[in-house]
């Protein structure tokens, strides 16, 4: 069996099951293999009844102190009883397991393991697993995978299919040269593929994860290095001259550009005038003023008689950029001359035909849009500059797609992801890097607080007050919907809770990555127009829209996110003239982890926070919400795995210096893997 085969080839996968797997992005056996667990259920040493924590899974060695009661509640058969040890008592409850009354008798001692809920002074354990002490001893410290799920797809179903795939795939040949594997002390691939899903223990899990993270980084960096070699030889067919118009536009702005903005603009101007094609990344915090610098580059391009295109991840953001660009051109009497157009998937067939015509004839000099800009039907007259906003939402190959539209254009990439420079040089290996590290003077600093769940009711009243004053609110949850065996707030249930907590005049909306693009656009549009006052969302809003009216960002289970990502989310507020606030709520019994959140209180500097995040996230920080948008990595995390990233970069450099085209026999399988990886990046740009 090959990785590219359909999951229908696995026994037990029919049409209905296939559709469920497709909902979570799995169509092939390879995608199933790379659908890594988001957490593990670890069988730890039993604790005392007294030390059981609310909302956590715990195990106790206890004696059944009562006979089991059985009663019918609607369609459920409920079995309940009491267990105790020397420190206290605990209620146990099972649903639809009547046979337990014959198996469990008063006075018998077992290890009971399940999720705890505290009801007053009483601990209640629901659906506990029951083991003899000897049987539990065998399971001790084992790790059972927990996958991200969707309605109808159970954890058991995913587990069963992954086991079937691992049994049927031939993983005996390792594509990584043995020399590299030994040099960097990496596990064999067949070991890693099994142990990442079904670890024998924590040590084996770490070994597997290290190997798979290394592979992801290696393939990504090798692709970049090959691309950079191609780019280095590329002549700038759209070499430009300095123009006065950009100076005039800067003079007419209602504010002064910061020193950092001016420096970056100078670097871009020099690039566009050079013999070599520009491939530059502009990094800067949300709100640092990257967009105006991009607009200046578009004006310089138009003045030189060429076209420019700016590509963004969402339709709503594309529309906002288009409106901002149109306003700037209008104020400088350039609108009729450049005739900007907006191209997205929502355009009607007739509108698209007219826009394609305007682009092909050169009637428009500026094009704003989503990935619709790289569709086959778009033909550019003279595309001299391409700007992609939020680099991590577009694969490297998508940027290359533009080169098929004529000569290769100059490339400008904008990103608000604050990556430390040492890592940025590796991750953006095909780009020169500029940093805007100053915020505009008129911005009010955001007020932050880090609190536990006891603060929630107070937060809800504060949110209500902000909405009454005409403002809007983001609430971030780590999950889309309730997931089997996963703790943490989810968007669906949380939105329902807020609808009950807040007055009926407040409209609560939901947004998450499983929604169709059209639905997402409609929700973001409604929020940007204040038809939705409170938006409950996953981290998908990181690259959302500019809503200056939003003044509150509340993040639930904040301890499960990376600091750099929380800073990204915080950047969604504080974009208007009003004071803005960020409330980080950490889960119960997470006080220790909340200490790292205090770093966000100390600084609003994204690069400082990213650097601190890098120091704090080590191999011991095993689980949590994966940094979203990290260049489509499926298991690797640039912060937690910074040392692996550097080693993979060294290995990529060594392999390519030895064999630039991967023609040597020991690199044959690696070459195939690299081609397959590049193909995946084209198919899934992460849009």
Explain this structure.
By secondary structure, the chain is α/β, with parallel strands linked by helices. Mean pLDDT is 85; it is low at 618-630 and 682-687. The chain has 4 domains: 7-41 and 146-212, no CATH class; 45-140, Nucleic acid-binding proteins (OB fold (Dihydrolipoamide Acetyltransferase, E2P), Beta Barrel); 244-436, Rossmann fold, CATH 3.40.50; 447-617, P-loop containing nucleotide triphosphate hydrolases (Rossmann fold), CATH 3.40.50. Helix content is 39%, strand content 18%. A 7-stranded parallel sheet has the order 11-12-10-13-14-9-15, sandwiched between helices. This is ATP-dependent DNA helicase RecG. Keywords: ATP-binding, DNA damage, DNA recombination, DNA repair, DNA-binding, Helicase, Hydrolase, Isomerase, Nucleotide-binding. It comes from Oliverpabstia intestinalis. Residues 271-436 form the Helicase ATP-binding domain. It catalyses: ATP + H2O = ADP + phosphate + H(+); Couples ATP hydrolysis with the unwinding of duplex DNA by translocating in the 3'-5' direction.
